[in-house]
Write a structure and sequence with these properties.
By secondary structure, the chain is of the alpha+beta class. Helix content is 55%, strand content 12%.
Amino acid sequence: MPSVASQHSPKFIIHTLGRFDVIKDGHSLVMSSSGSKKIWELYKFMLTHRDRAFTPETLMDQLWVSESYSDPRSTLRRQMHRLRQSLVEDDTAEHDRSLLFTNGYYKWNDHLQVEVDVDRFEQLIKLGESTKANTPQKALDYYLEALSYYYGDYLPDCFDQHWVFSVRNHYRRLYLKTVVATIGLMKTYAMHDEIIHLCQKAIQIDIYEESFHLSLMEALLHKNEQKQALEHYEYITGFYYHEMGLKPSADMKALYKRLLQTNDPIKTESNLYEALESNMSWENAFFCEPSVFKSIYELERRRSLRSGASFSVGVINIPYIKGHSQSQHDLRVNHLKLHLMEKLRKGDTFALWNDSQFVVLLPGVDHDLMEKILHRILDNYPNNDTIVINQIKHLTADLHQSISN
């Protein structure tokens, strides 16, 4: 049973999801603390493992593995003293302090009046799961309240602490699972606006979770907002390709087919040109994804076979510079992309084939003229000494085989 003193002790509210703070009697102890990073690491560790007890040596080994101390017990006592100062527990009775030292072990005081966001987060999800079958509307309310606690990863500032990784992944998986369950319930009530709002928030937390994007685009389709759905499809598939080299999944391709089927039927010449010319911009050369470049290449090849019209494809290589980071290389590639977009003709097409090569298609141009054009464009580009135009005459046949595949 809690002691009489503990029943009157201050209530703590602790935030761990997407931020860290300890609120005591309505005041932030973290914001007002002048303590070092180490004392709060100690507090976070004990909070995370509040069902366990640790010897001083074990605590030191778990927290600061790369550091050695001649007297770990004395070092830990000093850190504990500083932590208690930050928790305003200097004059608090021993049994009412946040961290107790009993029989040679440090442990969390489970008699404290403490509200931790992750505890409430898990509790609400369990309530949702237990009521989902019989009272889905009530389960939906529980899920939504649980998700309102999740602002981001567990203890995000502990990015270099190995002990937090498995716990962080646990809450992240729980969050993803709950978002999917919530969307499923929302679909049964046709809550498309709410699905869009939830997916947009979830994407800010985890942009790599494909199911969020699929649910967002499906909800947009239900609201007849095909344009926004297509724009999001183009954005996220481009993002996946550039960030991870991933092509659209089978689910993404299936949704894309559904998006295309929603285009209004073409009944008149006016309908046709309005549909084809919407959102068109011919101010610069056309930059596209490799898959689109392949289609344009195939159309030009067929036209060339049929009419004899010439066209050429070239490759521009941007080698990595020794000592440059990946971010510096990506920035250099992006600068060259903007330069090519401005300097190539409006009817020309180019694509970023991989992270260090552009492919360029110039209609009405033979190989020799293309080489001159590209050299002239690059002559006007700063720091072009490492950029290489391959032997286009010999490379085009190989590139044709690559594009055709």
